[in-house]
Amino acid sequence: MKVKNICCIGAGYVGGPTMAVIAQKNPEIKVTIVDINEERINAWNDSDLSKLPIYEPGLAEIIKDTRGKNLFFSTEIDEAIDRSEMIFISVNTPTKTYGKGKGQAADLKYIELCARNIAKVATTDKIVVEKSTLPVRTAEAVKSILDNTGNGINFHILSNPEFLAEGTAIEDLLNPDRVLIGGESEEAIDSLAMVYNSWVPEDQILRTNIWSSELSKLTANAFLAQRVSSINAISELCEHTEANVDEVARAIGMDSRIGPKFLKASVGFGGSCFQKDILSLVYIARNYNLNEVADYWEQVIIMNDHQKRRFSDNLIKTLYNTVSGKKIALLGWAFKKDTNDTRESAAIYVADHLLNEQAQISVYDPKVPKQKVYADLNYLNTRSEKENETNVAVENSPYDAIDGAHAIAIMTEWDEFRNYDWEEIYNKMKKPAFVFDGRNILDKNKINKIGFKYYSIGQ
Ligand code: NAD
Ligand code: UDX
């Protein structure tokens, strides 16, 4: 069946960019993205494209091209569901913060609400596509809700996990390594494959059973995060042995069996996916009593927490064991470059640790607004909102952030950080002027020559 109307529930980092690309590549399909968050929908509809709720290189251009033609953002959820033959569920699936599985299991309440909503309003047969990342066997629950609370119509469930990375979402969507579709109904799978076929070659569209598809998403993220934790583990060993982690990464990455990607040592991985999805995997394994499997993957998170902690501990130790009353400038707040997303960013935890030691924090990030920095810190509940406000300054210019600072900590690998006038920065700082490069992006020789005391990861 050729689909004419698509509805996507969830106008977030996945729903927005993914549907924008689907709409651009399928001008004959009407794509409606719906969300309960009215403010977010209004931002997607803002005529000023700089106000879109998500920053991704290339996204604004596609929105400009498609919005109002065959791409629509709306809060009229029921109407969009009923009109569409295919409904993507792209809502958030965060780690549970309450009850059984608190701190580990994926919270599926939003998924269930979507399934119930679809069942309630649908009057014609629907293909329901799981776009959110879900624990393996979630489709069973979704199907049961749809079949038991629906209006006696047919629902086909497909799993179509999204592999885009933030900061490169549009590029990843336009040139995916593969598109994965899991399901039982060949016809439903073909309908979804046809949507992607508009730009993705058939041999890159992988068809599997639904459980393999659900589990592949968690597995992919676990493997990627595991590589970062592996190289970060080696970075600590490098610091004790005069080996250089970037050289080690290069040397092992040239082994075609290992490959060069995802071997960049850092202050620790962040983002909304890696930690959440590994925790979910660990929880699932424990549920099946597979304790060795659970322990194995849990170690990836333990290593990552260690890496974040180690970074701030090193900073404090180097600053003569106290940062109390000292100004520390954090360059970057986003969890990686080219995004305004700060979820689970290492910067949050490093700042929190330094604030516990009574540091004065100043922050500069090219894309993260001031309120977001405070919201991230307040969410931790470590201290009062007032204290965060008093001890953290968020600046619009990097030169204001570093003015009078004892140390700079580079938290995000934004390209612009490399090109700053580091001589001027040096002159504006307290001496000795320390730089802690959590991303190994600066030229060590150049920075040392200016007079900085430079510390990087694994060197
Ligand atoms: P997000 O929080 O940015 O967006 C989710 C949106 O869903 C929110 O705007 C929220 O208001 C909306 N929503 C929640 N419940 C709703 C309901 N009942 N009805 C209507 N709207 C509802 O999340 P995201 O980053 O886009 O992630 C979505 C899913 O995709 C998650 O499962 C995530 O694991 C997965 N994923 C994310 C990424 C990524 O890079 N962010 C990549 C791959 C997969
Ligand atoms: C990840 C997956 O890459 C993507 O396929 C999935 O769909 C969602 O989760 P994302 O979290 O957006 O994407 O970004 P990613 O590029 O994977 O980076 C995650 C974190 O790891 C970032 O904090 C990044 O800085 C860090 N990282 C990544 C490293 O520290 N070193 C590396 O070599 C790679």
Description:
Residues 329-444 form the UDP-glucose/GDP-mannose dehydrogenase C-terminal domain. One of its GO terms (molecular function) is UDP-glucose 6-dehydrogenase activity. Keywords: NAD, Oxidoreductase. Its EC number is 1.1.1.22. Helix 13 links the parallel strand 9 (327-331) and strand 10 (360-364). The radius of gyration is 23 Å and the shape is globular. Helix 9 packs across helix 11. The N and C termini lie far apart (57 Å). The protein has two domains: 5-208, 3-Layer(aba) Sandwich (Rossmann fold); 302-456, NAD(P)-binding Rossmann-like Domain (Rossmann fold). The chain contains 18 helices and 14 strands. By secondary structure, the protein is α/β, with parallel strands linked by helices. The strands form two sheets. It has an eight-stranded mixed beta sheet, sandwiched between helices. The structure holds nicotinamide-adenine-dinucleotide (NAD) and uridine-5'-diphosphate-xylopyranose (UDX).
> Total domains, how many?
2
Strand order of the largest sheet: 3-2-1-4-5-6-7-8
- The chain-level mean pLDDT equals 98
Overall 3D form = globular
Number of strands: 14
Low-confidence stretches: none
Structural class: alpha/beta
Calculate the terminal CA-CA distance, rounded to whole Å. 57 Å
Quickly give the CATH architecture of the largest domain: 3-Layer(aba) Sandwich
What would CATH call the homologous superfamily of the largest domain? NAD(P)-binding Rossmann-like Domain
CATH topology category name of the largest domain: Rossmann fold
CATH class of the largest domain: Alpha Beta
